[in-house]
Write a structure and sequence with these properties.
The chain is α/β, with parallel strands linked by helices and 607 residues long. The chain contains 19 helices and 27 strands. It has three domains: 233 residues, 4-Layer Sandwich (Glutamine Phosphoribosylpyrophosphate, subunit 1, domain 1); 197 residues, Rossmann fold (3-Layer(aba) Sandwich), CATH 3.40.50; 148 residues, Glucose-6-phosphate isomerase like protein, domain 1 (Rossmann fold, 3-Layer(aba) Sandwich), CATH 3.40.50.10490. Strands 3-2-4-1-10-9-11-15 form an eight-stranded antiparallel sheet. It is globular. It binds 6-O-phosphono-alpha-D-glucopyranose. 6-O-phosphono-alpha-D-glucopyranose binds next to α9.
Length: 607
């Protein structure tokens, strides 16, 4: 989940690496560093904390060179100090690494005994010390790198440069993504294509277990036996300039405001609004014979999957099992025959989700993945990719990618429901019309900012907040609680409203705000009763509901926010928007770092 970049260029690469690191900072921001080769000598600058600290350091104490590597770190082994920041280097070699070297303790011991002097607490430094040792033994650069790579266990994406060699950069990939970019007599390496998107449109997504020797003339790819392999070059869109906030205070605010457009774009991809035809790519199983599905994902994507479960069960009558990917990867469920393995991920690189996908594949499941990054590892390992058109999401807390995932899940549900004859044409039509109308309704919700700000001011003082939902609104409550805790650092938990009486109700007193997502319709009365039980115990009740719901809720709720009335099929998408907005406004009130909350990273490529 660190970000790495390497450039073998024709001019000073320092500022270009810094720009690339800005695009990678979502992957980690505990520290940053850069190393360049100048007149055959490696020089390096590193700084703890955000990239801005490194930028300041470089301003005071610049380094320049035509070959360089850079890193943004999300700390795993070793505190987020300057000393543990990458690049790690010796007099001979400099390395940046994303991943975890699992045999680092044994390697450190062995290398220390051989006289190598470690300077950091990181697992990553074993790579540089290994290469350095082999170089001292007289091996050539490429050979020493290959020998070192063969000793590594765990996950890695690596970029490596050497003293006295201004036309060589080594890259390697094993369980963490790495992309090679081809320029005009210059070459690039990056953790993702976004990092190098403004520099070239020609990229090669390296397969797992491949390493590469990069020279200005091009890149050569090898497997771990040293056999040359091919790695196809693909065209990507050229992104110019930096991805800006368009006048918003934070990326998260900008991305929240992109909900309507993202839902609209994703719908446009799959739905013909004139004919109401949903056109998904060819699914890798016979829908009529499909007996069950298993959904897996992490974080917000898991909650999207949870909503998908309710939809697929209710509308398509398809039994669904769901689990978080860090559990699913180690589960050994008895699964009969070929079923649908549904994997959801914004980045397509989340390590647990990828491992869960592999587990499902091993169990003969056909994999459909819902992804925002269609060039990702999960994309490559899936049978079919259903893309979300959310665009680049920079804020660590996912917002627009979540509603885009739900939009795709809604289309998938209606497709399976239709083919299996589980929905009438009329009912399907109503659902689809509600979906197509959703961008406008969501735009109306965005207008509720001031009302949501008032509530945010209230909950910003709370020690703990409870979110309640029932049925398909339960995962919406979970998404609300996750957003609040991750960006405002207020403890929050979500409960299925009916479960309150079995324990969580003991938490309630006048200091604990209770936030409920409760549209009128099915389960409204049930949730209302649960809220009354909470009110009776002194709870401060805040509800998101519609006009009809507000009539019954007003007498008991301390705050009522009225959302547009929509078809129940799309309620979970609509009700997600205000709970995400509330988390954002609470974080603003508390003055936390909204886009880069402490301890988190956007793309979690370690276990
Ligand atoms: C991290 C992010 C979350 C995200 C989760 C899954 O924890 O902070 O916002 O939901 O990873 O990421 P993915 O890229 O697989 O959707």
């Amino acid at each position: 989940m660190c970000g790495i970049v390497g450039i073998l260029g024709n001019q000073s690469v320092t500022s270009i690496i810094m720009e690339a690191l800005r695009r990678l900072e979502y992957r980690g921001y505990d520290s940053a560093g850069i190393a360049v080769l100048n007149n055959g000598v490696l020089s390096r600058r590193r700084a703890a904390g955000k990239l801005d600290n490194l930028a300041k350091l470089l301003k005071m104490d610049p380094i320049n060179g035509n070959l360089g590597i850079g890193h943004t770190r999300w700390a795993t082994h070793g505190a987020p100090t300057e000393n543990n920041a990458h690049p790690h280097m010796t007099d001979r070699v400099a390395v940046v690494h994303n991943g975890i070297i699992e045999n680092h303790i044994a390697l450190r011991k062995e290398l220390t005994e051989l006289g190598q002097e470690f300077k950091s607490e990181t697992d990553s430094e074993t790579i540089v010390q290994l290469v350095d040792y082999y170089l001292k033994q007289g091996h050539k650069h490429q050979e020493a790198a290959f020998m070192a790579l063969k000793r590594l266990e765990g996950a890695y994406a690596i970029a490596m440069i050497f003293t006295s060699n201004d036309n060589l950069m080594i890259g390697a990939r094993h369980g963490a993504p790495l992309v090679v970019g081809f320029g005009d007599n210059e070459m690039f390496l990056g953790s993702d294509s976004l990092a190098i998107a403004p520099l070239t449109t020609k990229v090669a997504y390296m397969a797992d277990g491949i390493w590469t020797v990069i020279k200005r003339e091009g890149a050569f790819f090898y497997d771990m036996e040293g056999k040359e392999v091919s790695c196809p070059i693909q065209k990507t869109a050229l992104i110019t300039g930096t991805i800006g906030k368009n006048g918003y205070r934070h990326y998260m605010e900008k991305e929240l405001h992109e909900h309507p457009i993202v839902i609209g774009q994703t719908l446009r991809r799959f739905v013909n609004p004139a004919t109401h035809q949903i056109n998904l790519p060819y699914l890798p199983f016979k829908i009529t014979a499909l007996k069950r599905g298993i959904i897996t994902a992490c974080g917000s994507a898991y909650y999207a999957g949870y909503i998908g479960r309710y939809w697929l069960e209710e509308y398509a009558r398809l039994p669904i099992d769901i689990d978080i990917a860090s559990e699913m990867r180690y589960r050994d469920p008895p699964i009969e025959g070929e079923g649908m393995g549904l994997v959801i991920s914004q980045s397509g690189e989340t390590a647990d989700t990828l491992a869960a996908l592999r587990n499902l594949k091993k169990n003969n499941q056909k994999i459909i993945s819902i992804l925002n990054n269609e060039h990702s590892t999960i994309a490559r390992e899936s049978d079919v990719v259903l893309g979300t058109d959310a665009g680049v999401e920079i804020a660590v807390a996912s917002t627009k990618a979540f509603t885009a995932q739900l939009t795709v899940l809604a289309c998938l549900t209606l497709t399976i429901a239709k083919v299996k004859h589980k929905i009438t044409a009329e009912h399907r039509d109503q659902c689809l019309s509600a979906l197509l109308d959703l961008p406008s309704r969501v735009a109306e919700v965005l207008q509720l900012k001031e009302k949501i700000q008032e509530i945010a001011k209230f909950i910003a003082n709370a020690q703990s907040v409870i979110y309640l939902g029932r049925g398909i609104m339960y995962p919406v409550a979970m998404e609300g609680a996750l957003k609040l805790k991750e960006i405002s650092y207020i403890h929050a938990d979500a409960y299925a409203a009916g479960e309150m009486k079995h324990g969580p109700i003991a938490l309630i007193d006048h200091t604990v705000p209770i936030i409920s997502v409760i549209p009128s319709g099915f389960l409204f009365e049930k949730t209302l009763s649960n809220l009354q039980e909470a009110k009776a115990r002194g709870g401060h009740i805040i509800v998101f509901t519609d006009q009809r719901g507000a009539e019954s809720l007003s007498p008991i709720a301390d705050k009522v926010i009225i959302l547009p009335t929509v078809h129940s099929f799309v309620s979970p998408i609509l009700y997600t928007v205000p709970v995400q907005m509330l988390a954002y406004e609470a974080a603003i009130t508390k003055g936390t770092d909204v886009d880069q909350p402490r301890n988190l990273a956007k793309s979690v490529t370690v276990e």
